[in-house]
């Protein structure tokens, strides 16, 4: 018995399922890597001699799918905007606005008219700052009234999604990799198991009939079958099916609740963030109107704060300088609006509930709609993953024939060398 196990011939045969299992695993891992990497094309004579990950290469289509999925099925813009309570938002913004307007009074006067500001009594300077700060509530109220009347213009939701996905090329990859992390691990591990099983069948056939072509042909079959079966087992069947004592369902659908949670978290943290929402208010379609309202209200606030001393201030500065002072105060207030609205980010996070909304809606999707969320954008290129697995396995099959079963190779092809 010891002599049997020590026989080189026995270990040659044992190597068949071992090689097959390793090939199944490696080809599946390589196929997965090729789906996502590299982010940019590497090679020459694009697109013929080289490679770019399927997801990055189809970024525009993927972005379109993501936008359609989010805006058509998951997020109702009007519903999200209606969650903003004008009074609550005013209460959040009033404190920061008071703080910034008080600082602006000091900064502008010292910057443009330091001598005049220095000559004013401390009590007068403090009264000016106090009165200007007190008008902050009017600025917030005016902005709030207009925002409430123009909620649909505050955010360009589609534009926000596109900007986020275009700005960060790795983001699309992360969406797929994080939401489908278990499925991708399954694909890799299934290659090991299925490859080993196919290898056992291959070994038994080889024992009975050692045709030289068996190793490369079975290599081709193993690479093709392991990748194809792994993809099928992820997405089929959509609904649970009983096969004897087993309940079979595609892994992606079995984990719908988990995938929904991962997707909702990732989109809320990387795409529709509260910071991005604030930026959209400040720099998006509504920005021009917001800035105009702020400038107008600040001009009124300056008049009010200096009303008792306007003849004196006007005489000391002149009407042109006084008008320039109001303009500069408006500009500085607009420049400080990011700091003011930054204080509203926690409020937006609590109120808009983007993560929770996405998770709830995804969980409620039908299996067909849920599959349409992630799969269609790269479904047409799944054959590439299968073909890559088959080609690599074919090459390893030839390697086994040439190196491990060299006697068979020499007997068949020795005359050619």
What structural class should be given to the helix and strand makeup?
mainly alpha
- The portion of residues assigned to helices is over 70%
Taken together, the total number of domains comes to 2
The largest sheet is: 2 strands, antiparallel
Catalogue the unreliable spans.
1-6
- Cα separation of the termini: 38 Å
Tags for this entry?
417 residues; mainly alpha; two-stranded antiparallel ribbon; 4 strands
Explain this structure.
The chain has 417 residues and is an all-alpha fold. It folds into 2 domains: 2-69 and 170-259 and 367-416, no CATH class; 84-155 and 286-352, no CATH class. 81% of the residues lie in helices and 3% in strands. The protein is built from 26 helices and 4 strands. The protein has helices at 2-6, 8-36, 54-57, 59-74, 77-82, 86-112, 114-119, 122-134, 136-149, 151-154, 157-167, 169-179, 181-208, 214-235, 251-254, 256-270, 274-283, 287-305, 310-317, 319-342, 345-352, 354-364, 367-374, 376-379, 382-404, 406-413; strands spanning 42-44, 49-51, 241-243, 246-248. The strands form 2 sheets. The chain has a two-stranded antiparallel ribbon. The chain has a two-stranded antiparallel sheet with strand order 3-4. Helix 8 (122-134) runs antiparallel to helix 18 (287-305), helix 11 (157-167) packs across helix 12 (169-179) and helix 17 crosses helix 18. It is elongated and about 110 Å long.
């Amino acid at each position: 018995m010891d002599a049997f196990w020590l026989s080189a011939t026995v270990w040659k045969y044992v190597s068949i399922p071992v090689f097959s299992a390793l090939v199944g695993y490696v080809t599946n891992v390589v196929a997965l890597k090729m789906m996502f990497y590299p982010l940019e094309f590497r090679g020459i004579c694009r697109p013929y001699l080289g490679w770019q990950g399927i997801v990055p290469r189809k970024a525009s289509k993927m972005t379109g799918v993501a936008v359609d999925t989010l805006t058509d099925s998951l997020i109702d813009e009007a519903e999200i905007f209606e969650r903003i309570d004008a009074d609550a938002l005013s209460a959040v913004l009033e404190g920061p606005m008071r703080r910034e307007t008080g600082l602006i009074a000091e900064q502008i006067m010292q910057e443009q008219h330091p001598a005049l500001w220095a000559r004013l009594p401390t009590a007068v300077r403090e009264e000016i700052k106090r009165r200007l700060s007190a008008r902050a509530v009017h600025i917030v109220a005016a902005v709030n009234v207009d925002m409430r009347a123009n909620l649909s213009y505050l955010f360009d939701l589609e534009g926000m999604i596109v900007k986020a996905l275009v700005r960060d090329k790795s983001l699309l990859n992360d969406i797929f990799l994080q939401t489908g992390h278990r499925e991708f691990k399954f694909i890799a591990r299934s290659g090991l198991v299925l490859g080993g099983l196919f290898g056992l069948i291959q070994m038994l056939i080889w024992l009975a009939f050692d045709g030289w072509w068996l190793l490369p042909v079975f290599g081709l079959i193993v690479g093709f079958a392991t990748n194809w079966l792994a993809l099928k087992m992820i997405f089929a069947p959509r609904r649970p099916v009983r096969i004897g004592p087993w309940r079979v369902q595609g892994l992606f659908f079995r984990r719908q609740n988990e995938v929904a949670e991962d997707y909702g978290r990732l989109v809320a943290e990387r795409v529709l963030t509260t910071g991005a929402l604030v930026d959209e208010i400040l720099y998006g379609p509504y920005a021009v109107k917001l800035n105009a309202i702020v400038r107008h209200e600040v001009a009124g606030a300056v008049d009010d704060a200096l009303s008792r001393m306007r003849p004196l201030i006007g005489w000391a500065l002149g009407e042109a300088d006084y008008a320039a002072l109001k303009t500069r105060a408006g500009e500085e207030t607009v420049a400080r609006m990011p700091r003011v609205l930054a204080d509203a980010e926690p409020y937006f996070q609590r109120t808009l509930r983007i993560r929770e909304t996405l998770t709830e809606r995804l969980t409620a999707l039908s299996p067909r709609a849920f599959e349409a969320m992630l799969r269609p954008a790269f479904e047409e290129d799944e054959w590439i993953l299968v073909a890559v697995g088959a080609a690599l396995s074919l090459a390893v099959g030839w390697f086994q024939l040439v190196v491990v079963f060299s006697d068979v190779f020499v007997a068949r092809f020795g005359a050619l060398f």
